[in-house]
Amino acid sequence: MIAREKLDELIETHSAKAYQAACRLTGNQADACDLVQEAFLRIIEKKDLFDPGFDFGGWMYRIMFRVYLNSRRSRERLREVPLEPEAGSVPAAGAGSPERAAENSELGRSIGAALAGLPAELRACVVLVDMEGMDYEFAAETLGCPVGSVAGRLFRARRALRAALGPMEGI
Amino acid sequence: MFCAVVEPLLDLHLDGRLVPAQARWVAKHAARCPACAAKLAAGRRLKAALCGAGAPAMPDGFKARLLALAQARPAVETPAEEPQVPDLRPSVALAFGLAAFAVFVSGSLLGPGLPNQACSDSGSAVSSLGGKINEY
What we know:
The complex is a heterodimer. By secondary structure, chain A is mostly helical. Chain A is built from 7 helices and no strands. Chain A has helices at 4-26, 29-45, 56-74, 98-116, 120-131, 136-143, 147-165. Chain B has helices at 2-14, 20-32, 34-52, 62-72, 89-110, 124-135. By secondary structure, chain B is mostly helical. Helices cover 66% and strands 0% of the residues of chain B.
């Protein structure tokens, strides 16, 4: 069970991370907002079931990725466009000079487009392991599949990403 | 031929998922094979690119919206937990089993000392019956 004040604190701490992962998953900011909101709604509704001894971030990821995969399965078609930096948004991490920022922005767009071309399960694996830096065991637990499936999905996803990003210099 | 075996292991090697002997074997092969070395390097670059890919910052006011959501939405009522009563059924069954076993063992040890309704070995019933038959 999470106390009222503690829940506010957890939202303050974890919402930005959840939003970033949601952006990577959905490919656009509007859907990312919807996904994070839906995930936090479930968290709020089920907060009595949460054991404070466990990691809240892991629980949050699990709920958000399951919401995403379920919505993907239920919807036949989801509006998805590659990540586009919107006006007023903060540039990607590591941006220094304008040339570097432009390179990063172009690379980010290409990665977003390549990710959008992947099936939802493969994309979820790539986002969790390669972009969020989680290990295979956590990804398997979050996605509800064996560790071997995570390895297989990652292999297929990376092969597809390499094929899509191959023409880009440096990949 | 080795390349076909090594290729599926390259990603696992990059993720540090191979046991040391396998990792040494893959690294040794990649050092000799330019094609596998190129794939390994490409995998490394892809991982670095994915890891460094930024995501847009949260829109202004979104966090406040989430906090307002937490205030507006009460938690779903979970059914009140019933007081925990220890389940005695296994222990009761075990006690009955032990009692039955004890009765059986004592019966076996005492043997003829216990009265037996089916076949009495005292001979009194037979002799009294024989006496009655003789009377008739």
